[in-house]
Write a structure and sequence with these properties.
Layout (H helix, E strand, L loop, with lengths): L2 E5 L4 E5 L29 E3 L2 E7 L5 E6 L2 E7 L4 E4 L3 E2 L10 E4 L6 E4 L12 H11 L2
Antiparallel strand pairs: 1-2, 3-4, 4-5, 5-6, 6-7, 7-8, 9-10
């Protein structure tokens, strides 16, 4: 039978076979894992009141994504070891070497490690590449 039990000593509330909705003005803690449903891009699993299409959801096994205004903005995929930003760019899955930077590849949507050649018309970084690097590393 569904019910709710309360341990007055520890303050633990247990839902026995039913749904438990918590309304707290402070912090909510879990003793081990805090589990949520997967959610969707338009209804993320973790969100806030008043902006319910912005938050975090779990689009696939081993993947987590951040959405804003119902649009996927960032995805981290453990299956492919890729980080995708705004669905337009994927970070390289291998590490670069000293002095290399991440730039757009020839397709314009992927990225690759590049050794800068000094700028100008000699094949160096463009303003778009600098913007991409800024997005990736938050500078």
């Amino acid at each position: 039978m569904a019910g709710i039990s309360l341990d007055h000593t520890t303050g633990t509330i247990t839902a026995n076979g039913g749904q438990l909705v918590l309304a707290a003005g402070g912090q909510i803690e879990a003793g081990s894992q805090f589990k949520v449903l997967d959610g969707t891009v338009t209804q993320p699993a973790i969100t806030n009141y008043g902006d319910e299409n912005t938050g975090i959801y779990f689009p696939a096994q081993e993947a987590v994504a951040v959405v804003g205004a119902g649009i996927e903005l960032l995805r981290v995929d453990g299956n492919t070891s890729k980080v995708t930003i705004s669905g337009a760019y994927s970070l390289p899955t291998t590490a670069g070497t000293a002095g290399q930077v991440i730039t757009k590849d020839a397709s314009g949507t992927g990225t690759s490690w590049t050794t800068p050649s000094g700028g100008g018309s000699g094949g160096g970084l463009t303003q778009d590449d600098a913007i991409l690097i800024s997005l990736i590393f938050g500078s």
